[in-house]
Write a structure and sequence with these properties.
The protein is an alpha/beta fold. The protein has one domain. 50% of the residues lie in helices and 13% in strands. The chain contains 17 helices and nine strands. Helix 2 crosses helix 6 and helix 16 crosses helix 17. The longest helix is centred in the N-terminal third of the chain and has 17 residues. It starts with a helix and ends with a strand.
Length: 344
């Protein structure tokens, strides 16, 4: 590649550690600009090694306290978050933590708002959009509402995965279908940490596509779940609003898990607890950027010979705890008819 080609790659926002997770010092305008540049790069066919066939996908995590605390207890999730191209501060406590660490102008980059702004940009730039997550009913409503809100939006497909791990055959079918419609943007709405694991697992499957994990944004924009009023969002009380709406599903998260963030933040602020980049993050980050197509094929073959899917094989190499509640692959060759894949 020439020096001119290298200048075409956008500079990513600097990351800062919050309770062991690297969060990007960024804002909506930065993320929109970077995504626009990434899509332009995938259409010009450039990659870091000059081979457009090996152009990896990019992935963006919108990171809340729940995501940070999940990563705190699971090194595999922490490694995936730390290897993300961008990890936005999705919740106000994360924003306040960054401000307390010397970033007074840090703003919230909220998943549902980011999704809408990216869709508005996609409509203007004619970017191709795919939706992965939710139910078929939710996706149908979401598609209709997005097209109403963003006239000219090119939605090229959607997939409602089953509420269980995909089989290897199902995952292969989905990968082929998504690749066939060649999306520029893939919005993933299957909750944390499932969506982060899914994006990391598939970062070499869709040439140059930009994947964005947006959590509950599908339900919000489909009109299935109400969002907290703006004043509650600004005050950091969105968790309370969501808890009152879905107590059975969310009480453990907001009563037992996320409160632990506050003392850890305080200890980091007081320099009584230091968080360093761990080995798993460094290794997975290197894989994310430098693993070639041929090297990945060798890795997949070794995983297959060991009777494991690639994530489990990597876990065995890094000796990482496997207890992540994610929708990873199960070695079952049968294809279920319970999921819904739609190409538009």
């Amino acid at each position: 590649m020439t020096t001119e080609d290298l200048h075409q790659f956008p500079v990513l926002p600097r990351k800062h550690t919050v309770v062991g997770v690297s969060i990007s010092n960024t804002k909506y305008e930065d993320v929109l600009s970077i995504c626009r540049d990434w899509v332009a790069i995938r259409h010009t066919g450039h990659s870091a090694n000059g081979n457009h066939h090996n152009l990896p996908s990019r992935y963006i995590c919108v990171t809340s306290v729940h995501g940070i605390m999940t990563a705190r207890h699971d090194p595999f999730v922490r490694a995936i978050l730390n290897a993300a191209d961008i990890a936005t501060p999705d919740g106000m406590p994360v924003v306040w933590a960054l401000r307390s660490f010397g970033l007074p102008n840090q703003q919230r980059v909220y998943g549902p708002n980011l999704m809408i702004r990216l869709c508005e940009q996609a409509a203007l730039c004619q970017h191709r959009v795919f939706l992965y997550g939710g139910t078929e009913e939710t996706l149908a409503s979401l598609e209709r509402r997005l097209k109403e809100r963003c006239p000219g939006l090119r939605l090229v497909g959607r997939y409602a995965p089953p509420f269980r791990p995909l089989t290897i055959a199902e995952d292969l079918q989905v990968k082929k279908a998504i690749s066939a419609v060649d999306p520029d943007l893939i919005f993933v709405g299957i909750s944390t940490p499932k969506q982060e694991v899914w994006m990391w697992e598939h970062r070499f499957d869709f040439r140059g596509s930009v994947m964005v994990g947006v959590g509950a944004a599908f339900d919000f924009h489909a009109g299935k779940v109400s969002q907290a009023p703006p004043w509650m969002q600004r005050s950091g009380l969105e968790w309370f609003f969501r808890l009152t709406r879905e107590p059975r599903r969310l009480w453990k998260r907001y009563v037992l898990v996320t409160p632990l963030f506050l003392p850890l933040w305080a200890l980091q602020k007081l320099r009584m607890l230091a968080f360093e980049q761990n080995v798993e993050s460094d290794e997975l980050g290197a894989l994310n950027v430098w693993l070639s197509k041929s090297e990945r094929t060798v890795l997949e073959q070794k995983a297959l010979s060991s009777g494991l899917a690639v994530p489990e094989y990597l876990r065995s190499l890094f000796e990482i705890s496997p207890d992540v509640g994610s929708g990873r692959l199960a070695p079952d060759p049968r294809v279920s008819e319970s999921s819904q894949l739609t190409v538009l």
